[in-house]
């Protein structure tokens, strides 16, 4: 059974205040072309369909058009909500759309039933598990009282009637331990949202969403397909694609990629002002890409942003890398603070004030306190 794995469309996303919606429309058309070429038996969309819990009308229209084109192809589509989605809004009309082969994960109620497809080797069971926090699971299983994300996933999956002797595919949207992250992802503080991969042991393929870089976690069986477009300069060197997963008989899994080519790439370039504005530097390169330019001049160039945009019209970010910026301890400190979690920052402050690090008990208490605060965020 051939599956196409997508996630993190982030429809309506803005990068440095520039709308990515025109780029998203084009990349969705490219994905439809790949579907026509590959002729898969199902499409998996693993969360963060929208960039906001209340998406713009334009983003909803784009997704509506995409779903209509999928329904015309008579292709089973499985969709779960991510941390950026409102599960209630995304699941609206889901029972009506089931008849068109478009299957949305309902709001988590503690009872998840599979949707099954068949091929020459028998059934494949698809389990749709939306983004979960421990509080979501505690609501329905208070006797289990899961405190960590791993415990929450273990309880939720443990209540599914998964038969490990048959082929099972899980769609979920979580941060799995051991995966590589980048700046554009919204992760919880102190690594509290981290899930151990061992909770997925009964599944033949775990189609993950949440992280933007395409990657396997421990094995090809547990995979992030990544975003279809680059959404921050921390993703500039990633190669975007859709994942094609082919399930044979039990235990047989083949993974390959279909690359995606955006209308405008997201790139970083660096050099002195005279260098990056020389025709020999940019001639033959796509100057209309979305760019972050780092100038290495020792002195700031007057009106550099406007002057550079005469050559690079989609310049989004301008930085300097010189003696002044490298020795600016204030900026270095601010950047260092942004890279650290609240737990790390509090731990450093505590150690400076008390001349000793946090004890394991104190650290655990802080993790639980931070997590309880984080639960109140959308």
Structural summary, described in words:
- The protein is of the alpha/beta class and 378 residues long.
- It folds into three domains: 2-259, Metallo-dependent phosphatases (Purple Acid Phosphatase, chain A, domain 2); 266-326, no CATH class; 329-374, no CATH class.
- Helices cover 31% and strands 24% of the residues.
- It contains 13 helices and 19 strands.
- The strands form five sheets. A six-stranded mixed sheet has the order 6-5-4-1-15-16.
- The longest helix has 18 residues, at 21-38.
- The radius of gyration is 23 Å and the shape is globular.
In whole angstroms, the N-to-C terminal distance is 36 Å
Q: Could you tell me the number of beta strands?
A: 19
CATH topology of the largest domain: Purple Acid Phosphatase, chain A, domain 2
Fraction of residues in helices? 25-40%
Main CATH class of the largest domain: Alpha Beta
Salient structural properties:
single chain, 378 residues, alpha/beta, Purple Acid Phosphatase, chain A, domain 2, 3 domains, 6-stranded mixed β-sheet, 13 helices, 19 strands, 24% strand
List the helices and strands and how they pair.
Blueprint: E1 2-6, E2 14-15, E3 18-19, H1 21-38, E4 42-46, H2 57-72, E5 77-80, H3 87-91, H4 94-97, E6 102-104, E7 115-119, E8 122-128, H5 134-140, H6 149-158, E9 167-173, E10 175-176, E11 194-195, E12 205-209, E13 215-217, E14 219-224, E15 241-247, E16 253-259, E17 266-271, H7 273-276, H8 279-282, E18 290-295, H9 304-309, E19 315-320, H10 323-326, H11 329-339, H12 342-354, H13 360-374
């Amino acid at each position: 059974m051939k599956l196409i794995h997508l996630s993190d469309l982030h429809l309506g996303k803005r990068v440095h205040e520039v709308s990515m919606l025109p780029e998203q429309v084009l990349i969705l058309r490219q994905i439809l072309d790949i579907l026509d070429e590959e002729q898969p038996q199902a499409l998996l969309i693993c969360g963060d369909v929208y960039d906001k819990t209340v998406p713009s009308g334009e983003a909803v229209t784009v997704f509506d058009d995409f779903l209509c084109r999928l329904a015309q192809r008579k292709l089973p589509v499985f969709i779960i909500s991510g941390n950026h989605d409102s599960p209630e809004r995304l699941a609206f009309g889901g029972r009506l759309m089931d008849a068109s082969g478009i299957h949305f994960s309902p709001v988590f109620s503690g009872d998840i039933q599979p949707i099954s497809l068949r091929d020459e080797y028998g059934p494949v069971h698809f389990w749709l598990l939306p983004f979960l926090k421990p509080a979501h699971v505690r609501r329905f299983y208070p006797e289990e009282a899961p405190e960590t994300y791993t415990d929450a996933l273990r309880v939720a999956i443990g209540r599914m009637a998964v038969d490990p002797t048959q082929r099972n595919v899980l769609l979920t949207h979580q941060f799995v331990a051991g995966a590589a992250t980048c700046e554009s992802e919204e992760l919880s503080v102190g690594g509290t949202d981290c899930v151990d991969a061992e909770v997925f042991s009964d599944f033949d393929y775990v189609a993950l969403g949440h992280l933007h870089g395409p990657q396997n976690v421990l094995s090809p069986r547990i995979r992030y397909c990544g975003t279809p477009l680059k959404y921050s300069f921390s993703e500039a060197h990633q190669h975007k694609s859709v994942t094609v997963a082919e399930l044979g008989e039990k235990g047989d899994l083949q993974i390959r990629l279909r690359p995606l080519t955006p209308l405008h790439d997201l790139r970083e370039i660096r050099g002195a002002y005279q260098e990056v504005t020389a025709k020999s530097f940019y001639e033959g390169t796509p100057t209309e890409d979305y760019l972050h330019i780092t100038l290495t001049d020792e002195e700031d160039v007057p009106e550099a942003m406007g002057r550079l945009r005469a050559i690079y019209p989609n310049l989004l970010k301008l930085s300097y890398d010189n003696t002044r910026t490298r020795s600016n301890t204030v900026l270095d400190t601010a950047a260092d603070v942004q890279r650290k979690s609240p737990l790390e920052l509090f731990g450093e402050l505590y150690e400076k004030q008390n001349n000793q690090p946090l004890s394991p008990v104190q650290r655990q208490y802080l993790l639980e306190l931070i997590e309880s605060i984080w639960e109140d965020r959308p």
